[in-house]
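Sequence only, no structure available. Ideas?
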Amino acid sequence: MRARYVLSEAALGLWRNVTMTIAMIITMGMSLWFLGGSGLLFLQVDKIRDLYYSQVEVSIFLAPDITDEQRAAIDQSLSTDPMVASYYFESREQAYERFRSLFADSPELVAATDAESLPESFRVRLTDPERFTEISDRYRSVEGISEIVDQQELVGEIFSILNAIQIGALAFAIIMACASALLVMNVITVAAYSRRREVAVMKMVGAPNWFIQIPFVLEAVVAGLIGTLVAFGLLAGGKVFFIDGPLAPLSTVLTPVPWRNILLTLPALALFATILCATTAWFTLFLRLPK
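Reply:
I predicted one. Tokens follow.
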């Protein structure tokens, strides 16, 4: 009997303030969408970082006047270096072919460059990409080497941009969550005011506060869970229509977003929405309802 009363009162409360309920659902859905998206972005950036760092190469460019003995000595040193996972030698002709491939859209630049103007190099992959400074210090002064370049510097700049996007998305999600909490407070306040006579009668007959508060809290939680479904639908739709659609060619550059991660956002966002709505509603009622 009590459960039926609580559920009927919660449903009636949602219908009485239908416009504010819809506004709360939309705001909650958008905030949870940004929150879930920022969470997925955090996971993907970590995966992309691991992928790219595992493929980072150190380029050891050789001097134009290097001798065969110096080149062989560098080769021998790299082959026995414990910090080197793998390496290969790139001749001027191979460097020129790479150059032509990279700058195929700039035929004037390709025409103005010949193989002799490009240096020979050793392309080295480290066992630990974070130890570039050590290998740079070890080989910088070796005869026959003109320059050592680490791709990690360029990759680091890219990830600094991605990290800024992460932080921005998370900050916006937090702002939206605060807006949702304020809207929940307003909806509960209006609901409590519209039913003030019923609440007063229930207080007179000795109904405990928790029994009076449950329908209001349940209203907020139901609206939050519906907002969770909206957010999940937007995330799933984004994967189907964007990530697996127009952005699919980028899968060779960026790691794909697995459905497992998308599905895991549903219980995580539902838990967050439940806690946020229930806590906000209870706090509002604690302040508004007569003691």
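The radius of gyration is 31 Å.
Hope that gets you unstuck.
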